[in-house]
Amino acid sequence: MMISAEAPSCSRAKPSAAQSWSPLARRLIASAALGLASVLAVGVAEARAPAHRSVSQSAPVIGVDVGPLLAQGLGGFAEALRAELTGSLQAQFAGSLRPGERLVVLVRSISLASYAGDVNSFELPDTDYLDGVVRLVGPNGQELATKDILATSLSSYAGPWYQPDGEQRRAVVLAQTFAAWARRYIPT
Question: Does 28 reside within a domain?
Fold first, then answer.
């Protein structure tokens, strides 16, 4: 007598579970599987680190706020002063700011004497002023240093008053003086 290890077979084959479902049921299961896969893919994408550099690794930034001068109606003059002061600060702090640090300057006021090149009625030389505050902000937003600065310059220092663009030249001198004092007071 011979014993077979195979299971007895039926004359009628049973349909598999996938064959017994209707086409609509198969589509619903497939779309649910795709939906689950897309939800998981979005979750993995959101969990990844951002593609941009972190604040602590970003390049140092120098910013000049001339909002108070704009509020006084100094428009184009304020924007020219911002550009000159930004350039002067970049020259003074070149290579000394660490990654992620920000040097922020708020210019509160500028005062140019009405007459340049002589002494006034009190026998004092005419002086121009640039008032502001400089702040060094660390990579995480902490304030590392701050200093109020009142930069002064003789009105005649920028050259004769009768030459063209005298006020702009005087503002350039004040911006350079302010930047030099900022470099002296702000440790980097």
Answer: yes
* CA distances from residue 126 to 75, 122, 130, 183 in whole angstroms, order as listed: 25, 10, 14, 26
Measuring CA to CA, which residue among 17, 171, 14 is closest to residue 81? 171
Contact 132, 108 (CB under 8 A): yes
- Number of domains into which the chain is organized: 2
DSSP-derived 3-state class of residue 142: coil
pLDDT digits (tens, 9 = 90+) for 121-165: 666 678 899 999 999 999 999 999 999 999 999 888 888 878 888
Q: Are residues 104 and 161 in the same domain?
A: yes
- The per-residue pLDDT for range 144-154, each reduced to its tens digit, is 999 999 999 98
DSSP H or E run through 136? strand 127-137
Would you list the DSSP string of 67-133?
Answer: HHHHHTT-HHHHHHHHHHHHHHHHHHTTTTSPTT-EEEEEEEEEE--SS-SSB-TTS-B-EEEEEEE
Q: Residue 144: exposed, middle, or buried by beta-carbon count in 10 A (0-12, 13-18, 19+)?
A: middle
DSSP per-residue letters across 39-61: HHHHHHHHHSPPSSPPGGGSPPE
Residue at 102 is within a domain:
yes
